Amino acid sequence: MLDNPSSDLAAFWMPFTANRQFKAKPRLLVSARDMHYTSADGRQILDGTAGLWCVNAGHCRDRITKAVQAKVAELDFAPTFQMAHPDAFLLATRLANLMPGPLNHVFFTNSGSESVDTALKIALAYHRLKGDGARTRLIGRERGYHGVGFGGMSVGGIAGNRKHFGPLLPGVDHLPHTHDLEHNAFTRGQPAWGAHLADALERIVTLHDASTIAAVIVEPMAGSTGVLVPPKGYLERLRAICDKYGILLIFDEVICGFGRLGIPFAVNRFGVQPDLVTTAKGITNGTIPMGAVFATDAIHDVFMNGPDGAIEFLHGYTYSGHPMATAAGLATLDVYAEEGLLTRGTELAPYWEDAVHSLKGLPNVIDIRNIGLVAGIELASRPEAAGARAYEAFVKCFEAGLLIRTTGDIIALSPPLIAEKHHIDTLIGGLADVLKTVA
Ligand SMILES: Cc1ncc(COP(=O)(O)O)c(C=O)c1O
User: Fold this and answer.
1) CB within 8 Å of 43: residues ≥ 6 apart
2) Coil, strand or helix: which one is 291?
3) Domain of residue 360, residue span
4) Which of 80, 127, 253, 365 sits CB 3.0–4.6 Å from 135 for a disulfide?
5) What pLDDT, on the 0 to 100 scale, is given for residue 5?
6) CA distances from 196 to 200, 201, 222, 229, 241 (A)
């Protein structure tokens, strides 16, 4: 496979990876099925992270792979600029039917980052078309992750992802994050403390004036920063303040969407209706890259008012609605529906919650957070070595046949939604054994 690892690994500049460290001791996956990967040395690795929060129906599901195989031999590519193919409309309609409320229009992208940049552009163009072109400011949140495009980075709030890349977009401000160990450590589900943190939006409005603000974007449950569950009443309050000042609210559901929280979308889970929703990942079960932005009728209709024959939104990607992605998306929705996977997390959540909170009391565990089929386990950082403790746990887990994910010293778990209780036992039991050995 790799004859000479040191030279064969050199060319691939790996994303979000400590390249030199990895290449000195690589971890390679060569196949996958259902809940497991197979490593290059032939071991079964239990997937505790659904790949990268995307393989919600488990790996290499026949229905999805067969749909993609058939489509690639039938229609390899079709433009969606002034042309189209039927599956793109079919998938958009099915997605719109799945999404609650008036979010009835779907713009296809190829990733979460593209979904975020697309949503931000829709928000800006919407205000301008309404004659409100001074609304150009975008408000994100500290510790938010919205991908790696310049728009997503700008509204994102993870310092390490921003600091090397200059001033980013102008006119961006950030809400405070909602992480607070003093009040909320070891909360099961949504914390009771913290709704008032949304009131910071009032102060931002006072500072900049509402007439300059286009949109607020948040992850309903912040995933990549290490699983921050929204305090009770927080999202409701954000919605109310946005309504008061005519500001659009964007939910970034790239992780939350497609059943991760135990229900199809965070929109259902929290009962708060945003104006735009960004998705990706689980839309195709991770099989083919795809993202989608959902827009309300009210937003979409503002665009549909120009002169006949005018292109209403000058934006799109060569691969928006790619035939392979729409085939994967349609088959994925079939699997989700047939197996009830978009609500399976609700069934499993009590068992999951008890399992992850059983880690309380293990060495260095300073917080455990959970919602749906997601958990964050926060470890105390070693002095002068943030992230080192969780990284050691990650490597030891991999050696023990478990895939977990870490960000700084937080372990994030999000197994495929097909997980059975015995998988949860293996994952959490194995992690507990590892944590006992990580000093
Ligand atoms: C909330 C959120 N938005 C956007 C992204 C970016 O998605 P992608 O890596 O597909 O560009 C991610 C990726 O993890 C995410 O979690």
Assistant:
1) 401
2) strand
3) 5-60+340-437
4) 127
5) 59
6) 8, 10, 17, 15, 12
- Taking the CA of residue 52 as reference, the ligand 1 atom at the shortest distance is 14
DSSP 230: P
Let me know whether 327 and 425 are in one domain.
no
Q: Are residues 137 and 95 in the same domain?
A: yes
Q: Over the stretch 91-110, which tens digit does the pLDDT of each residue have?
A: 999 999 999 999 999 999 99
Residues having CB closer than 6 A to ligand 1 are: 111-113, 116, 145-147, 219, 223-224, 252, 254-255, 280
Residue 294 alpha carbon to ligand 1 centre in Å: 16
The string of pLDDT tens digits covering residues 195-253 is 999 999 999 999 999 999 999 999 999 999 999 999 999 999 999 999 999 999 999 99
What distance in angstroms lies between residue 155's CA and the mean position of ligand 1's atoms? 13
For ligand 1, the distance from its centroid to the CA atom of residue 52, given in whole angstroms, is 9
Q: What number does the ligand 1 atom closest to the CA of 147 have?
A: 6
Which atom from ligand 1 is nearest to the alpha carbon of 255?
A: 16
Residue 3 has pLDDT above 90, yes or no: no
Rounded to the nearest angstrom, the gap between the alpha carbon of residue 181 and the centroid of all alpha carbons in its chain is: 23
278 Cα: distance to centroid of ligand 1 (angstroms): 9
Residue nearest to atom 13 of ligand 1 (CA): 147
Q: Are both 327 and 364 inside the same structural domain?
A: no
User: CA-CA-CA-CA torsion for 195, 240, 209, 211, nearest 10 degrees?
Assistant: 150
82 and 19 share one domain: no
Digit-coded pLDDT (tens) for 329-385? 999 999 999 999 999 999 999 999 999 999 999 999 999 999 999 999 999 999 999
| pLDDT at residue 180, rounded to an integer | 98
Q: Work out how many domains the chain is built from and give that number.
A: 2
Q: Are residues 45 and 84 in the same domain?
A: no
Residue where one domain finishes, among candidates 339, 372, 403: 339
Domain C-terminal end among 286, 321, 339 = 339
Query: DSSP per residue over 247-302, as a string?
Result: -EEEEE-TTTTTTTTSSS-HHHHHT---SEEEE-GGGGTTSS--EEEEE-HHHHHH
Candidates 256, 281, 406: which one to mutate for ligand 1, based on the most atoms within 8 Å of Cβ?
281
Report the separation in Å between the CA atom of 284 and the middle of ligand 1, taken as the mean of its atom positions.
14
Judge if 334 and 360 occupy the same domain: no
How many angstroms separate the alpha carbon of residue 436 from the centre of ligand 1? 32
**CB-CB contact of 217 with 140 (8 Å):** yes
CA of 417 to the centre of ligand 1 (A): 19
